[in-house]
Structure formats: C-alpha cells, structure tokens
Amino acid sequence: MLKIENLHINVENKKILQGVNLEIKPNEIHAIMGPNGSGKSTLANVLSGKEGYQIKKGKITFLKKNLLNLEPETRAGEGLFLAFQYPVEIPGVSGMNFLRTTVNSVRKYNKQKELDGVNFLKILRKKAKFIKMDEKLIKRSVNTGFSGGEKKRSEILQMSLLEPKLAILDETDSGLDIDALKIVANGVNNLKNKNRSFLIITHYQRLLNYIIPDKVHILSKGKIIKSGDKKLAIELEEKGYEGIM
Amino acid sequence: MSIDTRTKKTVKSITEKYKYGFTTDIDSDKAPKGLNEDIVKLISKKKNEPKWLLDWRLKAFRAWTKMEEPNWSMVKFPKINYQDRYYYSAPKPKKKLKSLNEVDPAILSTYEKLGIPLEEQKRLAGVAVDYVFDSTSVATTFKDKLSKLGIIFCSFSEAVQKNPELIKKYLGTVIPYTDNYFATLNSAVFSDGSFVYIPPGVRCPMELSTYFRINAKNTGQFERTLIIADKNSYVSYLEGCTAPMRDENQLHAACVELITLDNAEIKYSTVQNWYPGDEKGKGGVYNFVTKRGACRGNNSKISWTQVETGSAITWKYPSCILQGDNSIGEFYSVAITNNFQQADTGTKMIHLGKNTKSTIISKGISAGNGQNTYRGLVRIGPNANNGRNYTQCDSLLIGNRCGAHTIPYIEVNNQSAKVEHEATTSKISEDQMFYCRQRGLDQENAVSLIVNGFCKEVLKELPMEFAVEAQKLLGISLEGSVG
User: Fold this and answer.
1) What SS3 state is found at A164?
2) Nearest residue to B455 via CA among B472, B442, B474
3) B-chain residues within 8 Å CB-CB of A88?
4) 0.85 surpassed by complex ipTM
5) Which of A92, B283, B332, B353 is 20 to 30 A from A159 (CA-CA)?
6) Considering the domain boundaries, does residue A52 fall inside one?
7) How many domains does chain A have?
8) What does the pLDDT look like over B91-100, one tens digit per residue?
9) Could you tell me if A117 lies within 8 Å of chain B, comparing CB atoms?
C-alpha cells in the first residue's frame, strides 16, 4: 500500500525528517507516536502533498505510484486521506455542498458516476448518524465556529464518505473527551477492511485502547527509533519517551 | 445553491478563451461616425420621436459639450475620442417583424451560442425576454400574458410611440439629463432599451429579463431603461449582458431609472460579463453606467443586486433615493477584477423620508493585477428621522499583485439616525486551498468554491436561474488566477 524509503525532509533548511523508513500493507493499522517536534505532522503533510517541504532524499510509493510526483488532489483521488490536526474554516460554504463536491471530485477522478443530491443525502444521513453528527452541523459553513470536537468529528465523517484506501489521522484524538474519542475510534473501526489501511499519529496511548494497532512506531528527532506491536504503546505510556529512548 | 459537479463540468467545458468571443455577421444600419446635433437629430428621427423628446436630447447634448469627463474614480484608461465612434447602429431587418420566426437567423444563432433561449421552455423558463441586439429591440415574448394584467414590457422606442405620456412623466426624473458626463451623453444619444410599467396592485407573475449585447464594431452602446412600479405593485427584473471579443475598447454608457410609488417594490438584478480584455489587459468593454432608483412612495422598496465579472472598466453606483417614509433601499454586490480589470463600484443611499432603511453588502474580489474599489455614500437628510443604514464591505485578495480599496462616505444630518459600517479584507489562505485539494478538488475548483462561499450573502439575493449562472461566471472569471 505505502512504502516510505529513506525519507529526508527539510523545512527552511532545517532538517526535520532524517531517513524515515516505513511500510504499510493493506488492512494494517499503524500508529506513529513521538514527542513534540519529532516530525510527526511533517510526515503527514508530506504524504498528503502540502507545499513548503523540501524533499532532500528518499522515495514514497503509494499503490505502486511515485507519490511525490502527484498533486494533492490526485493523491486524494488515488485514495489518500488526511484527517487534519487543525481543520480549517471555510466561511459561506455549506458543509453539505462541500462534502458532495469533494465526494464527486474523487468519484470523477476514479471514473465513477457522480452522485446526485438525493442519493448523496441518503448516504450522508446514514454515515452522519453512525458517528452521531448532528445534521444541523453539516448544514452550517465548513468547520466555521465548530468546537474542537465537532471539527474532529467532521473529519471522520469526511473520511467515511470518501472511503479512502489509506487514511492518515493527525492527532485526531487531541482535545477530545472520552465519549468523542470512542465515537472517532468507532468510526475508524467501522471502516476497517482488507483493502484499507490507517496511519494514526498520536501523542497518547489512549486512542490505541479503542483502535488496536498492528504496529506501533516511535518517531524521535526525524527517525523511527523503535517499532513494535501494541505492547510498545503501553510500555511507552509507563516509561515515557525518555525511558524508551 | 450548491456548486454541483454538473456546474463545474460546464465551467470546465468553457476554456480560458472567452466563450462569447464571436461576432454575428449581419448588416448594420449605421449613422456616420462622430457626435454632433445632426447625429442626435438623426437618431431621434430614426426613432420617429415626438418633438419634446428631441428637444430633451438636444438639451442634454448641449450640456454634455460643456462637461468634463470625470476623473475622481480609481479607474485609469487612455483618453476616449468621442468623435471616433458610431452613435447609432441597428441590425437591418428585411421587413417588419411580426413574430420570432421572422428574426434574422444569424441573430437567433448568436443567442443560441450564448445559451439564451427564445422560448419559455428553455433555460430561463418562465422569463419574458426583451432582447436588445446592439441598439434595437429584436423580439419580445410573453407580451400577451403580461398585457392582460396591464403590464407594459417593451423596448424603450416602442414605449415612446405607444405610451408617450408615461415616458414624458417619468423620463429623466431620477437621473436628470445634466446628472453626470456619461448619463448626459446617454440622454443625448440613447438608442434603445427597455421600458416596464406595472399598474397599481399588480404583482408581476414572472421575472422580466433583458439580454443586452454589444455587437457592431466601434458602436457605443447607450441603453436607456425605465421601470415604474405603481402603487402596491411588485416586479423583479433581470439584466444580463454578454459581448463578443473585440480588440478595440468598447464604450458602454447606460442609464437605468427605477421609480416605486406607495407600497411598491422593484428588485433589479444584474449579471454583467462583458468582455474583460485579455490576460495582458488588451481590449475589453468600458462600462460607465448610471443606475438610480427613487422610492417615491411611502413603504416602497428598491433592491439592487449585481454580479460584475466582466468589462475592462466598471464605473457604476446603483443608488436609491429614499423619499417616501418607511422606504427601503438595498444594494448587494459582487465585483470581480482579474488580470488588468478595474472596478470602481458601490452605491449611494440618500435618506430623505422618515424611518427609511438601507442595507449595503459589497463583496469585492481581486485577482491577477485587478483593482477593485468600493465607493459608497450614505447620506441621512435632516428630515430623515430614525434613518438606519447597515453597510458591510468585504474584500478578498487572490495573489500579490492585485488591489482592494474601500472608500465610504457617510453624511449624517439627523441625530436620530443609526449608521453602521463594517469592512474586512482577507486573502484566500494556503490552508484553505490545501484543505480543499486534500479532499480532491483541483486548484480552480477550490478557488471557485471558496469565492462562492465568500459571496454567498449576495448570491442568495439573485433569482434562481441567475444564481446558477453567476456561480459559473465566478469560476470562469477567476480561471488562471492561481497556480
């Protein structure tokens, strides 16, 4: 699914990632944990194609394509989804309109028939209900005036509508109370299938109680210094980053 | 109203090239170049006008010769040689037209390319259209249905023949012939336009619509529109404009006068997408328009909504004179300037009556090297007790070479008045763009989505058919502005 080889990334000539290697196979859930400033969000942004990152070395292959050559919207079309740490507000654009436009853009890219309003609404209602998202919220402008939890839930709704092949969750758990956390985890677990993978970026082990990862990696100073299974996250919780490193 | 993918597809099918860049080959009946009293007389004679109207034109012409082109606006353009232009041009009809079947097929096919249907079943279903081709009205539909209600909707020239008393009573009463350089020029040489009269107590059952189109080379277009809503009546009027591509700058100086009597309401909507010039700023229409409405009656209302995406230069201030007590004026505007377009647009709200209210919502979008100015006046007269105004001016910048300017004038002469002014300037953020692209939208669709969101408060004021077209136009106008 995704293969990262010896990835070196600079931001304004400062070395952020210094030789990251990672392979995610279909139907796997990987978690990346690491202290502040270790390069977790940089990795998410580079994978999704955000500008402002200098690729010094390395290669990323996504579904046999050279990911770094693709525009962000092409990556989305190919099935890469990023749940943002800080989802941006788009005033005046109703969530309903935004969601349908994005879903149909991705469908169009994949040469699928675009959904009309009625069919889209049916699907939307079902998925919104599953993650307990109020329909009133969807009618409002995208993320505008949403609470932190509402924004994160909206990201999960988008993920479930776009049905990506690889979903990257960038600290989706931060700022969520325990109920919201369970809903988010539920949303992810519900989407699990043999053709889909997840990369979960988080500070805390907490989320991993609800989403059981196949692999856990610890990122520190731009490198993956330790990989293991779910036990590694628990060990980390007990010993702290210092203890592990 | 959603920008659905079908809309986006249509936008995509219209490439960078201006869609309406073609000309129709029909013989024009042209007056010689230049402007003098003889030309004014010729125009009046061609129209078989009564003497009082010719005299009015001549007074305007004489006033115009003593006036100077205004230079206070933010728009810059090379000096116009007013003598090097044609002031009258009409498509030559083979014979007098009785029905649409007799309309020149070249003209009909032009409208087809523009996507304007001549019959009600098509796109603007339920809309009676009075087409103005260059300067002469070509065909009017729905006349029967409207005339049963006593509504008059016809070309200005026709109204001069059939309803001279109404023209004489109202023409020039909102925009006097001495008003300003361009309005005065228009008063002297106006060739045609639309006339609407809604009798007392009648609610016009359909949106009335005119498509203006500049076609003949070097022909200034001087439309004159007059709309009167008599007591307790209502009408919604749509004006849409497209013009073919030309290298020469084309001059357009229209006048629109609106009058509402007691409890009457006029809603006037414009989508202007005339040729804006190319990416280097070559060509494009000069659009110097005077639009003004008078709320003469108590409890009357005039609402202007405009979406200005075209023209190299837009100089336009649709205004309301709130004479009647409790009368309401509204101005909703979206103006886009891309490449080298310049717009200096806004409104004037003149509060004279008691308890008069006005609302101004202006959305300016600048991209490329575009310059966009909001210029507005809110004046509360000494007798306008409890006058209220709310103004909101938002500017959106795309890129680093464009400009946005806001110039509000506020004059309050009554202590009981309340005037509010809010203004914001923002840029489309990289984060917003990236967010949309991560969800699968390409750059242009992302800009179009964000801009449509920015303009939502104005677009929702447009009648439905227009709103869809306007959304497409916003996308087309901003093509090439990012990336």
Assistant:
1) coil
2) B474
3) 429, 431-432, 435
4) yes
5) A92
6) yes
7) 1
8) 554 444 455 5
9) yes
